[in-house]
Design goal:
5 helices; elongated; EC 3.1.2.22; alpha+beta; signal
């Protein structure tokens, strides 16, 4: 006759109190389930495979720009062989015009390259701009009719005359990093 309270160990319990000999089988079943789940094709493929283009793809009508891309652009000037070109690193926090230095504390920066011709004294800036504004290219759009996250992240280089010295000095960085003369490059330690 069994005494009260002497029920078999683990009887009536599930999970943590189960008999130790069952634990390896539970893990085996869990691993088999994970392997099967990993092998089934999902609706979305991530990451999206990289494709190279020899041309700028037509933008999707979904991507709309609020502001004109590179409104102050100018052609890249011809540099003469006897000219000395100074190259500057330009950096300021992204959206500093709206949020000040907030994103700078998180090291989220906008970079550009500045050039100065010592022969003519003219300055030039080259920046990479997104065609559909920063928010559109930074964050993906989840569209129900598409199998993967959708990005409006086309961009292009914008080259224009002048360097906004005050902006870059007051809000970030304007540092000489190299000098180019007659095919020779002398890097500065920045």
């Amino acid at each position: 006759m069994a005494q009260a309270g002497s029920a078999a160990r683990g009887a009536g319990l599930r999970g943590a109190g189960a008999a130790p000999e069952r634990a390896p089988w539970s893990w085996t079943l869990a691993l088999l389930w994970l392997a099967a789940a990993a092998g089934t094709p999902s609706r979305r493929q991530w990451p999206v495979p990289y494709r190279r283009f020899s041309f700028r793809p037509e933008p999707d009508p979904y991507c709309q720009a609020k502001y004109t891309f590179c409104p102050a652009s100018s052609p890249m000037p011809v540099m003469k062989g006897d000219d000395v070109i100074e190259v500057f690193r330009l950096q300021a926090p992204v959206w500093e015009f709206k949020y000040g230095d907030l994103l700078g504390h998180l090291k989220i920066m906008h970079d550009a390259i500045g050039f100065r011709s010592t022969l003519t004294g003219k300055n030039y800036t080259m920046e990479w701009y997104e065609l559909f504004q920063l928010g559109n290219c930074t964050f993906p759009h989840l569209r129900p009719e598409m199998n993967a996250p959708f990005w409006c992240n086309q961009g292009a280089a914008c080259f224009f005359e002048g360097i906004d010295d005050i902006h870059w000095k007051e809000n970030g960085t304007l540092v000489l990093v190299a000098t180019i003369s007659d095919g020779e490059t002398e890097a500065q330690s920045a």
